[in-house]
């Protein structure tokens, strides 16, 4: 089986927020697909501190991975070995490359077991006050300034024309620049939700304001994980 295991959004989140079955599945296998080894070890320790780190068999699965890179792991699964799939944060396969293994498992008739947990994208949406029936997750915006401006304005236009909420992210160290761009390129009455440090009991920041109000006081979010939502 392939267990799709959620990771915390903040290391400060209480373990009581998570289903006990996560620990059970982590204790059940030593084999994991991970996007980042250091992060994965911290997540395993968070849920199952008694599990021996030396026993972990970690296989890298990131956006550059192809099936040929994880052939050894796939052969083990075909022989009956259970694996866990760990995201860096939140749910696997959402803004995460884990779908490569999930797709392969379906092709090979290997059972996929999703475990409930937090998704920063969904938590930002439901906290925004925007349309939760119809929405689009757009991933990361372009780095190029011109392309970024074009997409920001396209997303604003889609909100106005369709009413669909538009969700996107940025690499944390570029958050402040993105906020500058949003307040520069969007119309004053357009509404923007910024959801940062989600699930952190001390530093969680979730606010929905018009662009003209964001212009008056911009949050400091350098290197802070955040999700942005445009909506009505």
TrEMBL record:
SUPFAM superfamilies: Tetrapyrrole methylase (SSF53790). Its EC number is 2.1.1.198. InterPro entries: 4pyrrol_Mease, 4pyrrol_Methylase_sf, 4pyrrole_Mease_sub1, 4pyrrole_Mease_sub2, rRNA_ssu_MeTfrase_I. One of its GO terms (molecular function) is methyltransferase activity. CDD domains: RsmI_like. Gene3D superfamilies: Cobalt-precorrin-4 Transmethylase, Domain 1 (3.40.1010.10), Methyltransferase, Cobalt-precorrin-4 Transmethylase, Domain 2 (3.30.950.10). One of its GO terms (biological process) is methylation. It holds the Pfam family TP_methylase. Keywords: Cytoplasm, Methyltransferase, rRNA processing, S-adenosyl-L-methionine, Transferase. Residues 25-198 form the Tetrapyrrole methylase domain. This is 16S rRNA (Cytidine1402-2'-O)-methyltransferase. It comes from Chryseobacterium jejuense. The gene is rsmI_1.
